[in-house]
Amino acid sequence: MPVYVSEAQVAELLGPADARTAVHASFERLARGVVDNPPRVRAELPDGVFAVMPCVDRELGYAGLKTYAWLPGGTPFIVVLFSIERAELAAIIEANVLSERRTAAASAVAAQLLAREGAATLGVFGCGRQAAAHVIALREALPRLERVLVSCPNERRRAAFCDRHGCEAAEQGREAGECDVVVTATTSKDPVLRGEWLREGALVIGVGANDPGSRELDNVVLERASFVCTDSRSQAREEAGDLIEPVESGVLDWLEVHELQNVVAGELNPRTGDDDIVLFKSNGLAAWDLAAAAHVVAAVT
Protein backbone atom coordinates (compact mmCIF):
# COMPACT_ATOMS: atom_id res chain seq x y z
CA MET A 1 0.00 0.00 0.00
CA PRO A 2 1.27 3.50 -0.77
CA VAL A 3 2.11 5.77 2.13
CA TYR A 4 -0.17 8.77 2.65
CA VAL A 5 1.47 11.76 4.36
CA SER A 6 -0.61 14.62 5.77
CA GLU A 7 0.25 18.31 6.03
CA ALA A 8 0.68 17.90 9.79
CA GLN A 9 3.24 15.14 9.28
CA VAL A 10 5.15 17.21 6.73
CA ALA A 11 5.21 20.18 9.12
CA GLU A 12 6.62 17.96 11.85
CA LEU A 13 9.18 16.04 9.79
CA LEU A 14 10.49 18.63 7.29
CA GLY A 15 12.26 21.34 9.25
CA PRO A 16 14.22 24.14 7.53
CA ALA A 17 17.56 22.33 7.90
CA ASP A 18 16.06 19.07 6.60
CA ALA A 19 14.59 20.84 3.59
CA ARG A 20 17.85 22.67 2.87
CA THR A 21 19.85 19.42 3.01
CA ALA A 22 17.39 17.66 0.70
CA VAL A 23 17.30 20.51 -1.83
CA HIS A 24 21.10 20.95 -1.79
CA ALA A 25 21.49 17.25 -2.60
CA SER A 26 18.91 17.65 -5.36
CA PHE A 27 21.01 20.41 -6.95
CA GLU A 28 24.06 18.13 -6.79
CA ARG A 29 22.17 15.36 -8.60
CA LEU A 30 20.90 17.85 -11.19
CA ALA A 31 24.51 18.88 -11.83
CA ARG A 32 25.53 15.23 -12.28
CA GLY A 33 22.78 14.69 -14.85
CA VAL A 34 20.89 11.96 -12.98
CA VAL A 35 17.68 14.01 -12.75
CA ASP A 36 15.25 14.81 -15.57
CA ASN A 37 13.18 17.88 -14.70
CA PRO A 38 10.97 19.06 -17.60
CA PRO A 39 9.32 22.49 -17.34
CA ARG A 40 5.99 22.93 -15.60
CA VAL A 41 2.84 22.27 -17.67
CA ARG A 42 -0.21 24.49 -17.12
CA ALA A 43 -3.85 24.18 -18.16
CA GLU A 44 -6.50 26.81 -17.65
CA LEU A 45 -9.29 26.38 -15.11
CA PRO A 46 -12.29 28.65 -14.61
CA ASP A 47 -10.69 31.57 -12.71
CA GLY A 48 -7.52 29.58 -12.14
CA VAL A 49 -4.73 27.31 -13.35
CA PHE A 50 -4.04 23.59 -13.05
CA ALA A 51 -0.32 22.75 -13.07
CA VAL A 52 1.73 19.56 -13.28
CA MET A 53 5.46 19.41 -12.54
CA PRO A 54 7.06 16.06 -13.51
CA CYS A 55 10.47 14.73 -12.53
CA VAL A 56 12.57 11.58 -12.60
CA ASP A 57 15.37 11.30 -10.05
CA ARG A 58 17.18 8.09 -10.95
CA GLU A 59 19.64 8.23 -8.07
CA LEU A 60 16.90 8.92 -5.53
CA GLY A 61 14.91 6.06 -7.04
CA TYR A 62 11.69 7.93 -7.73
CA ALA A 63 9.67 9.17 -10.62
CA GLY A 64 6.99 11.58 -9.59
CA LEU A 65 5.24 14.87 -9.85
CA LYS A 66 3.82 17.78 -7.98
CA THR A 67 0.43 19.00 -9.06
CA TYR A 68 -1.82 21.77 -7.87
CA ALA A 69 -4.96 23.74 -8.70
CA TRP A 70 -4.61 27.52 -8.33
CA LEU A 71 -8.15 28.68 -7.58
CA PRO A 72 -9.82 31.66 -5.90
CA GLY A 73 -10.75 29.50 -2.91
CA GLY A 74 -7.24 28.14 -2.34
CA THR A 75 -4.38 26.20 -3.87
CA PRO A 76 -4.21 22.52 -2.87
CA PHE A 77 -0.87 20.83 -3.65
CA ILE A 78 0.08 17.15 -3.69
CA VAL A 79 3.25 15.23 -4.54
CA VAL A 80 3.04 11.70 -5.93
CA LEU A 81 6.04 9.35 -5.80
CA PHE A 82 6.48 6.18 -7.87
CA SER A 83 9.22 3.71 -6.98
CA ILE A 84 11.38 3.09 -10.04
CA GLU A 85 12.82 -0.13 -8.58
CA ARG A 86 9.50 -1.65 -7.46
CA ALA A 87 7.36 -0.21 -10.28
CA GLU A 88 4.64 0.85 -7.86
CA LEU A 89 2.98 3.87 -6.35
CA ALA A 90 5.08 4.63 -3.26
CA ALA A 91 3.51 7.68 -1.65
CA ILE A 92 1.02 10.53 -1.85
CA ILE A 93 2.05 13.62 0.11
CA GLU A 94 -0.06 16.66 0.92
CA ALA A 95 2.29 19.41 -0.20
CA ASN A 96 1.26 22.94 0.76
CA VAL A 97 3.75 23.08 3.63
CA LEU A 98 6.28 21.10 1.61
CA SER A 99 6.06 23.61 -1.25
CA GLU A 100 6.68 26.56 1.05
CA ARG A 101 9.62 24.92 2.78
CA ARG A 102 11.35 23.54 -0.30
CA THR A 103 11.18 26.95 -2.05
CA ALA A 104 12.63 28.68 1.00
CA ALA A 105 15.24 25.94 1.27
CA ALA A 106 16.38 26.54 -2.32
CA SER A 107 16.72 30.24 -1.52
CA ALA A 108 18.71 29.32 1.59
CA VAL A 109 21.06 27.17 -0.50
CA ALA A 110 21.46 30.11 -2.89
CA ALA A 111 22.09 32.54 -0.04
CA GLN A 112 24.84 30.40 1.47
CA LEU A 113 26.61 30.27 -1.89
CA LEU A 114 25.86 33.71 -3.32
CA ALA A 115 25.60 36.18 -0.42
CA ARG A 116 28.72 38.10 0.42
CA GLU A 117 30.63 37.28 3.60
CA GLY A 118 29.08 38.78 6.70
CA ALA A 119 25.65 39.58 5.25
CA ALA A 120 23.77 41.04 8.23
CA THR A 121 20.49 42.43 6.91
CA LEU A 122 17.59 40.80 5.08
CA GLY A 123 14.90 42.71 3.21
CA VAL A 124 11.69 40.86 2.33
CA PHE A 125 9.01 42.07 -0.07
CA GLY A 126 5.76 40.30 0.78
CA CYS A 127 4.05 39.16 3.96
CA GLY A 128 2.44 35.86 2.99
CA ARG A 129 3.31 32.26 3.78
CA GLN A 130 6.22 32.14 1.35
CA ALA A 131 7.72 35.29 2.82
CA ALA A 132 7.40 33.77 6.30
CA ALA A 133 9.08 30.55 5.20
CA HIS A 134 11.96 32.59 3.79
CA VAL A 135 12.48 34.56 6.98
CA ILE A 136 12.73 31.31 8.95
CA ALA A 137 14.95 29.50 6.44
CA LEU A 138 17.34 32.40 5.82
CA ARG A 139 17.80 33.17 9.50
CA GLU A 140 18.91 29.58 9.97
CA ALA A 141 21.11 29.51 6.86
CA LEU A 142 22.74 32.91 7.52
CA PRO A 143 23.38 33.07 11.28
CA ARG A 144 24.96 36.54 11.05
CA LEU A 145 21.65 38.15 10.08
CA GLU A 146 20.87 40.87 12.60
CA ARG A 147 17.87 42.66 11.08
CA VAL A 148 14.95 41.64 8.89
CA LEU A 149 12.96 44.45 7.25
CA VAL A 150 9.62 43.67 5.63
CA SER A 151 7.86 45.66 2.91
CA CYS A 152 4.16 45.00 2.29
CA PRO A 153 1.50 47.42 0.97
CA ASN A 154 -1.07 46.25 3.53
CA GLU A 155 -0.06 47.95 6.79
CA ARG A 156 -2.19 45.71 8.99
CA ARG A 157 -0.80 42.50 7.49
CA ARG A 158 2.74 43.89 7.61
CA ALA A 159 2.41 44.77 11.31
CA ALA A 160 0.99 41.33 12.12
CA PHE A 161 3.76 39.63 10.13
CA CYS A 162 6.51 41.60 11.85
CA ASP A 163 5.03 40.89 15.28
CA ARG A 164 4.76 37.17 14.54
CA HIS A 165 8.25 36.79 13.09
CA GLY A 166 10.26 39.38 15.01
CA CYS A 167 10.90 41.63 12.00
CA GLU A 168 10.94 45.38 11.42
CA ALA A 169 8.39 47.11 9.21
CA ALA A 170 9.88 48.94 6.23
CA GLU A 171 7.84 52.11 5.80
CA GLN A 172 9.15 52.43 2.24
CA GLY A 173 10.27 49.77 -0.21
CA ARG A 174 13.70 51.35 -0.41
CA GLU A 175 14.46 50.32 3.19
CA ALA A 176 14.01 46.63 2.39
CA GLY A 177 15.75 47.05 -0.96
CA GLU A 178 18.91 48.41 0.65
CA CYS A 179 19.64 45.23 2.64
CA ASP A 180 22.50 42.78 2.10
CA VAL A 181 20.06 40.06 0.99
CA VAL A 182 16.76 41.01 -0.67
CA VAL A 183 13.93 38.54 -1.24
CA THR A 184 10.88 39.29 -3.39
CA ALA A 185 8.05 36.88 -2.54
CA THR A 186 4.97 38.60 -3.91
CA THR A 187 2.14 38.07 -6.39
CA SER A 188 2.74 41.48 -7.95
CA LYS A 189 2.41 41.93 -11.70
CA ASP A 190 4.67 45.00 -11.62
CA PRO A 191 8.17 45.50 -10.17
CA VAL A 192 8.38 45.97 -6.40
CA LEU A 193 12.20 46.17 -6.26
CA ARG A 194 14.14 48.94 -7.98
CA GLY A 195 17.75 48.35 -8.90
CA GLU A 196 18.73 51.86 -7.80
CA TRP A 197 17.99 50.85 -4.19
CA LEU A 198 20.47 47.97 -4.14
CA ARG A 199 23.65 48.39 -2.16
CA GLU A 200 26.97 47.18 -3.52
CA GLY A 201 27.42 43.45 -2.90
CA ALA A 202 23.70 42.70 -2.52
CA LEU A 203 22.16 39.33 -3.25
CA VAL A 204 18.66 39.44 -4.79
CA ILE A 205 16.43 36.36 -4.63
CA GLY A 206 13.33 36.64 -6.83
CA VAL A 207 10.72 34.06 -5.86
CA GLY A 208 7.41 35.30 -7.33
CA ALA A 209 6.52 36.37 -10.89
CA ASN A 210 6.59 32.92 -12.46
CA ASP A 211 4.61 33.82 -15.53
CA PRO A 212 5.80 35.83 -18.54
CA GLY A 213 3.54 38.81 -17.84
CA SER A 214 4.63 39.42 -14.25
CA ARG A 215 7.65 41.26 -12.86
CA GLU A 216 9.00 41.76 -9.34
CA LEU A 217 12.34 43.25 -10.45
CA ASP A 218 12.88 46.27 -12.66
CA ASN A 219 15.42 46.33 -15.48
CA VAL A 220 17.96 48.21 -13.37
CA VAL A 221 18.27 45.15 -11.11
CA LEU A 222 19.36 43.15 -14.16
CA GLU A 223 21.62 45.92 -15.43
CA ARG A 224 23.46 46.12 -12.11
CA ALA A 225 23.77 42.37 -11.55
CA SER A 226 27.21 40.99 -12.40
CA PHE A 227 26.01 37.37 -12.03
CA VAL A 228 22.53 36.10 -12.85
CA CYS A 229 21.42 32.55 -12.20
CA THR A 230 18.22 30.56 -12.06
CA ASP A 231 17.16 27.03 -11.17
CA SER A 232 16.33 25.97 -14.74
CA ARG A 233 17.00 27.97 -17.89
CA SER A 234 14.45 25.98 -19.89
CA GLN A 235 11.73 26.68 -17.35
CA ALA A 236 12.79 30.32 -16.99
CA ARG A 237 12.47 30.82 -20.75
CA GLU A 238 8.80 29.86 -20.46
CA GLU A 239 7.68 31.57 -17.26
CA ALA A 240 10.20 33.93 -15.64
CA GLY A 241 8.95 37.38 -16.62
CA ASP A 242 11.79 38.92 -14.63
CA LEU A 243 14.21 37.43 -17.18
CA ILE A 244 12.07 37.13 -20.32
CA GLU A 245 11.28 40.83 -20.66
CA PRO A 246 14.86 42.02 -20.04
CA VAL A 247 16.09 39.55 -22.67
CA GLU A 248 13.49 40.76 -25.15
CA SER A 249 14.47 44.39 -24.54
CA GLY A 250 18.21 43.68 -24.87
CA VAL A 251 19.09 44.28 -21.20
CA LEU A 252 20.08 40.63 -20.74
CA ASP A 253 21.07 37.67 -22.89
CA TRP A 254 20.17 34.07 -22.09
CA LEU A 255 23.87 33.24 -22.46
CA GLU A 256 24.42 35.36 -19.33
CA VAL A 257 21.91 33.34 -17.29
CA HIS A 258 23.53 30.46 -15.41
CA GLU A 259 22.01 27.61 -13.39
CA LEU A 260 22.47 27.41 -9.63
CA GLN A 261 23.28 23.70 -9.83
CA ASN A 262 26.61 24.59 -11.44
CA VAL A 263 27.45 26.88 -8.53
CA VAL A 264 26.52 24.11 -6.09
CA ALA A 265 28.82 21.74 -7.99
CA GLY A 266 31.71 24.23 -7.79
CA GLU A 267 31.82 24.74 -11.55
CA LEU A 268 31.09 28.49 -11.40
CA ASN A 269 32.31 31.28 -9.15
CA PRO A 270 29.45 33.78 -8.72
CA ARG A 271 31.58 36.57 -7.24
CA THR A 272 34.77 38.30 -8.28
CA GLY A 273 34.53 40.66 -5.30
CA ASP A 274 32.41 41.74 -2.33
CA ASP A 275 30.83 44.59 -4.32
CA ASP A 276 29.29 42.34 -6.98
CA ILE A 277 25.49 42.31 -7.12
CA VAL A 278 24.19 38.78 -7.64
CA LEU A 279 20.71 37.58 -8.64
CA PHE A 280 19.03 34.20 -8.19
CA LYS A 281 15.69 33.89 -9.99
CA SER A 282 13.74 31.00 -8.47
CA ASN A 283 10.98 29.35 -10.48
CA GLY A 284 10.53 26.19 -8.40
CA LEU A 285 11.54 22.70 -9.52
CA ALA A 286 9.78 19.36 -9.17
CA ALA A 287 13.23 17.94 -8.34
CA TRP A 288 13.08 19.82 -5.03
CA ASP A 289 9.60 18.45 -4.35
CA LEU A 290 10.73 14.87 -4.94
CA ALA A 291 13.77 15.35 -2.71
CA ALA A 292 11.77 16.89 0.14
CA ALA A 293 8.97 14.32 -0.22
CA ALA A 294 11.48 11.44 -0.19
CA HIS A 295 12.91 12.78 3.08
CA VAL A 296 9.45 12.85 4.66
CA VAL A 297 8.50 9.39 3.38
CA ALA A 298 11.75 7.93 4.73
CA ALA A 299 10.93 9.42 8.13
CA VAL A 300 7.47 7.85 8.31
CA THR A 301 8.34 4.38 7.00
Extract low-pLDDT stretches. none
Q: Report the principal-axis shape.
A: globular
Largest β sheet strand count, sense and barrel closure: 8 strands, parallel
Cα-based radius of gyration, to the nearest Å: 18 Å
Residue-averaged pLDDT: 96
The beta-strand count equals 15
Helix content: 25-40%
What this model shows, in words?
- The chain has helices spanning 7-13, 16-32, 96-114, 129-141, 155-165, 173-177, 219-224, 233-239, 241-248, 260-264, 286-300; strands spanning 3-5, 35-36, 41-45, 48-57, 62-70, 77-83, 88-94, 121-125, 147-151, 168-169, 181-184, 203-206, 227-230, 257-259, 278-281.
- With 301 residues, the chain is an alpha/beta fold.
- The strands form 2 sheets. The chain has an 8-stranded parallel beta sheet.
- Strand 3 (41-45) and strand 4 (48-57) form a beta hairpin.
- Helix 3 packs across helix 4 (129-141).
